Automatic annotation (TrEMBL):
<dbReference type="InterPro" id="IPR004843">
    <property type="entry name" value="Calcineurin-like_PHP"/>
</dbReference>
<dbReference type="Pfam" id="PF12320">
    <property type="entry name" value="SbcD_C"/>
</dbReference>
<keyword id="KW-0255">Endonuclease</keyword>
<comment type="function">
    <text>SbcCD cleaves DNA hairpin structures. These structures can inhibit DNA replication and are intermediates in certain DNA recombination reactions. The complex acts as a 3'-&gt;5' double strand exonuclease that can open hairpins. It also has a 5' single-strand endonuclease activity.</text>
</comment>
<keyword id="KW-0378">Hydrolase</keyword>
<dbReference type="InterPro" id="IPR050535">
    <property type="entry name" value="DNA_Repair-Maintenance_Comp"/>
</dbReference>
<dbReference type="GO" id="GO:0006260">
    <property type="term" value="P:DNA replication"/>
</dbReference>
<dbReference type="GO" id="GO:0008408">
    <property type="term" value="F:3'-5' exonuclease activity"/>
</dbReference>
<dbReference type="InterPro" id="IPR041796">
    <property type="entry name" value="Mre11_N"/>
</dbReference>
<keyword id="KW-0269">Exonuclease</keyword>
<comment type="subunit">
    <text>Heterodimer of SbcC and SbcD.</text>
</comment>
<dbReference type="InterPro" id="IPR029052">
    <property type="entry name" value="Metallo-depent_PP-like"/>
</dbReference>
<dbReference type="GO" id="GO:0004519">
    <property type="term" value="F:endonuclease activity"/>
</dbReference>
<keyword id="KW-0233">DNA recombination</keyword>
<dbReference type="Pfam" id="PF00149">
    <property type="entry name" value="Metallophos"/>
</dbReference>
<dbReference type="InterPro" id="IPR004593">
    <property type="entry name" value="SbcD"/>
</dbReference>
<comment type="similarity">
    <text>Belongs to the SbcD family.</text>
</comment>
């Protein structure tokens, strides 16, 4: 059986100030084309379909379009809810939608109830484990400690118990949304440490043929049978080095796994550049980034004037500007308390200006600061008299 494994669509999410709905629609089109051209037997989507619990209408419309296009292909699709999704909202109408071959699995209680598909070699049981927030599902799974490993382990016990009742030739696929030990995170995944230690060992998933993971945005192989597809689009500059893709999985008659990465369309490349403003504007080696979405880190010891306006003249798609001036080790190592000791309020304000800008206030700015502090002290004096 041939599977297409994807996850973390995050429909409705923006990239900094850029609306990504067009790129997300392009990905859905690419997904549908891939299913058709590669003769895929089933699509699995491992959570975070939406970017938030109450998605914008445009994201819901795109999801609706995706469901119709997948249903029109006649290829079964299985989806679980992730930690960004509202499981109850995503699962509305699941019973009706299932008649069209779209199987939404958002209820933790149904972890041990599979969707069973068949090919020429027999049955394949697909188990959907939606994101399991330990504090919310510990009673359902009767675990003593509300931790990710405990609830996932209990859910997998249900999976293995159901498998034990089926023919030995039955192959198995698990969809799960979790942080598995060995995976590499990025800046764009929402923290799931609330409710216990986030990472769970891959051994939790023992006894099944393939585990289609979601949550981490980089495509990764934890083991040959346990993989992350990653997100189809980049949602932070920490993903600048990612190859966005999906897994094409061939599940053999004996449960063997053959995997191939299929690239996803890239709306615009990402670049992280660092140096002084003058260097970034002049370096010919950076010409390849002029059409990319850019995060620029400036190392000028003094904050330059109008840095964003000047950067966008060369890099018109600059989205993020970071100021990280190069300072001496002695300055960087000085403790905040030690730097403030014995200094007046106005001196502290002057130091703050110097820290942020790289140079202290000039005479005119000193006068402004002095007048501001005098006004504050006068106001305090008036309030003291009024008491």
């Amino acid at each position: 059986m041939r599977l297409l494994h994807t996850s973390d669509w995050h429909l409705g999410r923006a990239f900094h100030r850029v609306n990504m709905l067009g790129a997300q629609a392009e990905f859905i089109g690419h997904l549908v084309t891939t299913v058709r051209e590669h003769a895929v037997d089933a699509v699995v989507v491992s959570g975070d379909v939406y970017d938030r619990a109450v998605p914008p209408l445009a994201a819901v419309e795109l999801f609706d379009d995706a469901l119709h296009r997948l249903a029109d292909l006649g290829v079964p699709t299985l989806m679980i809810s992730g930690n960004h999704d509202s499981a109850r909202r995503l699962g509305v109408g699941a019973g009706l939608i299932e008649r069209a071959g779209i199987h939404l699995r958002t209820d933790p209680a149904a972890a041990g109830t599979p969707v069973v598909l068949a090919d020429d070699h027999g049955d394949v049981a697909f188990y959907g484990l939606p994101y399991l927030e330990p504090a919310l599902v510990k009673d359902e799974f009767a675990v003593d400690r509300a931790g990710h490993e405990a609830v996932l382990g209990a859910a997998m016990d249900r999976v293995r118990a159901d498998l034990a009742t089926r023919a030995r030739s039955t192959r198995s696929v698990v969809l799960a949304h979790a942080f598995v030990t060995g995976g590499e995170s990025s800046d764009s995944e929402r923290d799931i440490t609330v409710g216990g230690v986030a990472a769970v060992p891959s051994a939790v998933f023992g006894g099944v043929d393939y585990v289609a993971l979601g949550h981490l945005h980089g495509c990764q192989t934890i083991t040959e049978r346990v993989r992350y597809s990653g997100s189809p689009l980049a949602y932070s500059f920490s993903e600048a080095g990612h190859r966005k893709s999906m897994w094409l999985i061939d599940l053999g008659a004996d449960g063997s796994v053959t995997a191939e990465r299929l690239e996803c369309p890239v709306p615009r490349p990402l670049a992280r550049i660092k140096g002084t403003l003058d260097d970034l504007l002049a370096d010919p080696a950076l010409a390849r980034h002029e059409d990319a979405w850019v995060e620029a880190t400036l190392t000028d010891p003094v904050r330059p004037a109008d840095p964003m306006a000047r950067l966008t003249e060369r890099y018109p798609h600059t989205l993020s500007l970071v100021f990280a001036p190069e300072r001496s080790p002695d300055d960087a190592g000085a403790s905040y308390a030690r730097r403030l000791a014995g200094r007046s309020d106005q001196q502290v304000a002057q130091d703050f200006v110097a820290h942020v800008r790289g140079a202290g206030p000039d005479d005119g700015e000193l006068d402004v600061l002095r007048e501001a502090f005098d006004a504050v002290r006068a106001d305090d004096a008036v309030r003291e008299v009024a008491r």
